[in-house]
Amino acid sequence: MKNSKDRPTPVFKRYFSWLICRLILFCASIWLLVNHPEQLDFTERFGFQSGLSFVNLAFCLMVIDLFTKLLPHASIAMGSRKQYGEYHVPTPRLFGGGVKELMDTATQLIANAPATLRQKAQSTIEETITSARETAQGVKDASRQIAYSVDVLGVLPWSEEDLTASEILRSDIRRRRQREIVPVLIFWIIFNALIWLLLDRFDVFNECTALVWTLFYFLFDMICVVLWCPLQLVLMRNRCCTTCQIFNWDGIMTTTPLIPFIGWFPSILVALSLAVLARWELAFMRHPERFDDRTNASLQCANCKDKLCHLRKPLRPQHPSNSQRSARTTQETASGNVADEP
Q1: Which of 44, 140, 136 has its CA nearest to residue 95?
Q2: Which of 244, 340, 243, 246 shows the shortest CA–CA distance to 301?
Q3: Does 117 or 66 have the greater pLDDT score?
Q4: How many CA atoms does the CB half-sphere of 146 hold within 13 Å?
Q5: Digit-coded pLDDT (tens) for 277-319
Q6: Domain boundaries, the chain
Q7: How far apart are CA 50 and CA 337, in angstroms?
Q8: CA end-to-end span of the chain
Q9: Can you give the pTM of this predicted structure?
Q10: How far is it, in rounded angstroms, from Cα 242 to Cα 289?
Q11: Cα of 213 vs its chain's centroid, Å
């Protein structure tokens, strides 16, 4: 029998099903463009008066996809939901304070913990304080024990102050992210500008071709998640979709061909895409630690439940073991530097 770890997860199956649906939608648009191009004119075929038209169907599917990215509990991948605080599982790098700070945090956790867990938490805190007094590394190890054995259960409330990364770590997260997104942004602007100029040169850039172009991006977005992502391989070089810094950029990237047009159809889709993008970027500006696997355990391979890499394997290997990470953390603490994970 095949190992359960090698089987596709429910999330992967869901995304693969969406890939098939988008493929059918795109193929239908190509057929209509060749045989009945008037059916793709969203200035004439959009709205209640058009009934169950192809334009209305495409509009509904894209709106549903955009709305799911604004819902914290939607059945989508962690790569999209990591912007929300409830999916942030702190790692030892977020516990850099001394004994007093750790005691204050521990006291708050115990006070808010259910009665059935207080005894276990109390024992954990005592071990934490003892370790903290003996060695600075003890603070890191004990914090890891709290973060992984207690907070992962989802029963203890963490305040934002507990999860605040140091400014040094925040700056490093921002630099790493800039190295990923800036090349993509430059490429996307130039690439689409060239296509616009080419279509305009042959006088075929209109509402019909713009919709087909949009549906191609709508399909290719799911291809990138499930099968193959050239942006990851060539420009970003990130590990996988879970750590991708532009996961929720797909809306604005998909609707890029609609930007030059005026009307309800393009305006609603572009506005929703901008709302998704703004929510994503504002979340990073306020809480960059949620977007990095060094400070959010939910993004690490060991804790991944999505396994969107079922067919498209991670570009980089999984993180080192806890013992290796502990030794590395000790070295970083001693040197005062923050290094990228391999």
Answers
A1: 140
A2: 243
A3: 66
A4: 35
A5: 999 999 999 889 899 998 888 999 888 889 998 888 887 655 4
A6: 4-88+167-291, 92-157
A7: 61
A8: 34
A9: 0.74
A10: 14
A11: 24
